[in-house]
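The freezer alarm interrupted the setup, so I double-checked each line after restarting. Inputs confirmed:
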Amino acid sequence: MPHLPSPSVPSSSLLHRLRRTLRTPLGVTALTACIVLAVVAVLGPMLFGAEADRVDTNAIDQGSSMAHLLGTDDLGRDIAARVVVATRLSLELTLQATVIGVVGGLLLGVAPTVLGRRLGRLVTATVGVLVAFPGLLFVLFLATVFGVGSTGAMFAIGVATVPSMARLVQNMTASIAGSDYVAAARILGVGRFRLVSRHLLPNIAEPSALFATQAAAGILLSFSGLSFLGLGVQAPQYDWGRLLNEQLNGIYVNPVAALAPGVAVVLTGLTFGLVGEVFAKASGRRAPLSRQQPPSEQSAMAPAPLPDESAEGALVQVHDLRVGFPDGREAVRGVSLTIGHGEALGLVGESGSGKSLTALALADLVPHPGRVQAAEITFDGHDLRSDPHLGTTLAMVFQDPMASLNPALRVGRQLSEVAEVHLGSTRAQARARAVDRLSAVRIPSAARRARQRPHEYSGGMRQRAVIAMGLMGEPKLVIADEPTTALDVTVQQQVLDLLAEVRTETGAALLLISHDLAVVAQVCERVLVMYAGRIVEDLPVAELVGGAAHPYTRALVGAIPTMTTDPNTELATIPGRPPEPGDADQGCSFAPRCALATDRCRSTRPELVGFDTGRRVACWHPVGAVLPLDVRPVDAEAAS
Amino acid sequence: MTTALTRNPWAGFALRRCWRLLVSLAVLVTASFAMIHLIPGDPVRAALGTTASPALVAAEKHSLGLDQPLLSQYVTFLGNLFRGRLGESISTQLPVSQIISSRLPATLEIAVPAFVLILLTAIPLGMSAAVLTKDGRRRRGELAFTTATGLLGAVPEYLLAVGLVAAFAVALPIFPAASQGGPSSYVLPVLSLTVIPAAVLSRIVRVETLRVLGEDYMRTARAKRLPARLHYLRHALPNLLTSSLTLGGMLFTSLLAGTVLIENVFAWPGLGATIVTAITQKDYPLVQGIVLVYGSASLLITFAVDMALGLADPQSTIRGS
Ligand code: SF4
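Predicted 3D structure, all chains:
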């Protein structure tokens, strides 16, 4: 017999996981409820059977009393006793119908695998048609065929469960049957039935069990519904539904008697639901453990020194910007920057360096639960966080144009609403402006395109539409976060040209976030390099190649990806990985990957300090830079 | 044809859905025809009772056409169906189509308001729950919402109906407990049909809203600094509607089935009450006719929801089909 590795989960491990889940509060509740139900079902008829059947003509249709807790029915029988006794029959019928449904569903679900293609397709199609009918209609149809009564109802409800179970099994087997080891088993000549019993069934056991408990809850409800309609259990037998049917007429006299069987049905249904939850938990569908990281120590460091250039009249002024998360991680750790009017500034760094969060903080769009703190953050002279003009003066361009336009709204509408809301335009004016802006970003036949929804646009057109959206107002700053990364190489250049054109025409400043130095070098005048949440170098674009002072910048330049490189392979040539936001934060964060690192680098963090004109660097041993005396690297230390 | 389909995915989608509808209708018609033949024993004898004379049984069989060969019975059945003839009820001797047309309005009078009410309550409720509890805010409120709607979802409609009768017709006699009458008699049946599907749908809407709020295009909308009303109603609502209705589509067909039980609780003179009596009386032609009505109605609802979604959100619906 060929031995094949099968990824089936050994049942012992399921049992193990079940046992563990049973110890949780949920498991304990479910188990207790099951035990209570079982005890009532087994002992109920023995203890209360006589009481439930005793006809007492002196006590007909009584309300609740000490003698009869829930009152009596039209033959003077004790209703409480009858509700208890009915537990057994209700559960029995439910379980039998569940078995019919599950077995039938498994047979029909596995059939396509065993029967070969033609017949298999037929079975799949039949099941597909049957699941479209509402369950109760199916039950009524079958109840007509099988006849009124508990056996007929049991078959009707059981068979009505088959299609949805079969559908589930078919979906699962289809994915398993396509897998490698089943293909291997086929090649090795493992028979169809052996394939099913050894490979398919073990793999679908868990989800099937889960479905069975859920189906049981539904079946219980259907069964009592059918009995309630008078189509299920017939007198003198009685289940909960039948009791409800009998007591409904007396609801004016004794409402509790009519409600009691209903409460029993709901509680039992909830018990089945709990068992299903336990199975689901044990199958590993539990919530992922929250990775609580110890809050990193707030380094008691002095705020980064203010940029030495005069910041008077700058468009954006940010000082000591921090973006933190409730678990204590800090993704942006004290960034200070200025953007002049009309300036094109690049922000580069690896993914996870905090550059995108910095940009989002500048746009006041940091997603929850991120918290933004800053000593100063002004835009055009106002505090950014309370600037009412942000909707028209700040334009955002995001990375994925496929996702950043609303799929349900026409593109023109998404543009024109900006003018309506912020500029007080009428609908017609706003629409005209939207068309005008769309043609400004060279969208052909803009009037027609404005009436289309984003899915009719290509990726490049969408990105241009997003840019046009920013042009609806009078932008003073365009923040573009990886605007070309998701685009085809051929379209990237067009979008970059468009951004440059927007700058010259509107005089807006540009903050371009990218991992791609080639893009930044082409569009920007000045570059900020970010590493592990901090700015490590601030330099003119002209100095980027050959003139960078920070070892990290130099490494980046050495690893410069061209427009054709796969963005995921970026910076592969710098050995090591950047630190995670939660990692210990001591010394220079780049030290583990830096060829020039010394003990000083590992113990004390270099601050971002200015040198030359308008350049800043955070490094103890900057390459080829003439630093002010106080921060000049000490050679003796380097030698140690 | 293949090229036409690839060129216009929507047409392909509509064609596939129409084909599926036709096949399902054919299955429904055939099944309802086959029903009387699937019943073990002699259905006519069972319907008329053991005391009926053999001559009467034979006459009834003849009038039902059961003495014909199976194939010609099927052809006759189809022919009659196209002319809107569904045969005669065994117990009342009235045309089935007449019984159905006199009973259907009462069913629609509670089903349609319930349908509208479900949409009108579930969507605002689910959306506000999502907005109030997004990003892990108001953990307690979230727990209360999910527990309450989850518990309601575990209650079958007819039990809720009994509970509502006990509360608002017996304990506090505000509304009548049974039978069709003035406007107040509609309150409890419609509520019984509404509350549970609305609870289930509002759960779905909440989850869908949370998903939509996390989408990139909602960040774009945030960047536009729109007032909250536009942000949620114009940008979030259409997107979550399509996906919630896809998931909630089943809810509407089961609403139809729910009327069967509710009508029996309230002695409502609709189709649901009729089919139950017909089944107990073994009035097979009547059962057959009502099964056809319910079945085709639910198939048409599913079809309509699918097509509406295909129109509203062509991209995702068609891709997912
Ligand atoms: S401070 Fe030291 S470790 Fe950090 S970049 Fe400069 S030389 Fe390298």
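Quick read of the result. Confidence is low (pLDDT under 50) at residues 1-5 of chain B.
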